[in-house]
Design brief:
alpha+beta; 2 domains; six-stranded mixed sheet; two-stranded antiparallel ribbon; 3 helices; 8 strands; elongated
């Protein structure tokens, strides 16, 4: 949704809508699907800047980081940003101060859906889990260990001791 900020100076711009966002737009492998995103908010003039406040709610389907099962997650959140038209005084990378973290420099026209997409990405955990006790998948056969043992031989020999194990086997045959 594109907003011309000069029109907001007279009266605040308010919206309430439900948007469909493809999970590919968020571009995170942990995110399988997104439900419809309901969001509403307001952009108001705060001389000389603008203040954006919004609330959103949606359901996301994530892939468990251990067993790959789908995990539904309901998300609610808020966005509060100060939109400023001022150009930066310095070029290149600049360390932000704490009070500047909620400040975004924008042009006269602002695409506010970009702020929603950022929040959708931020709400995806790095390693989602279906539960704290998730056993994951067997590294040998790929079976889901939450459904029971797979029968694979789990005894592994430390490769640093293989030569000694071979020597021991030869000595026991003699």
């Amino acid at each position: 949704m594109l907003i011309r900020l000069e029109s907001v100076q007279e009266s605040p711009f308010r919206w309430e809508e439900t948007v469909t966002v493809d999970a590919a737009e968020v571009d995170l492998p942990e995110l399988n699907r997104l439900g419809p995103v309901s969001w509403q908010g307001e952009v108001s003039y705060a001389d000389p800047d603008y203040f954006l406040t919004a609330r959103y709610e949606y359901e996301q389907m994530l892939a468990c980081g251990r067993c790959l099962k789908e995990v539904p997650s309901r998300v609610r959140g808020e966005i509060q940003l100060l939109l400023t038209l001022e150009a930066p005084n310095q070029s290149g990378e600049v360390a932000l101060k704490e009070e500047e973290l909620g400040c975004v420099q924008v042009d006269e026209e602002v695409e506010i859906n970009q702020f929603l997409l950022e929040q959708l990405a931020l709400n995806v955990p790095m390693t989602p889990r279906c539960g704290d006790d998730c056993q994951g998948l067997c590294s040998e056969c790929g079976a889901d260990l939450n459904e029971g043992p797979c029968g694979c031989d789990r005894t592994t020999v430390d490769p640093r001791w293989e030569a000694l194990a071979g020597l021991k086997a030869r000595l026991s045959r003699d």
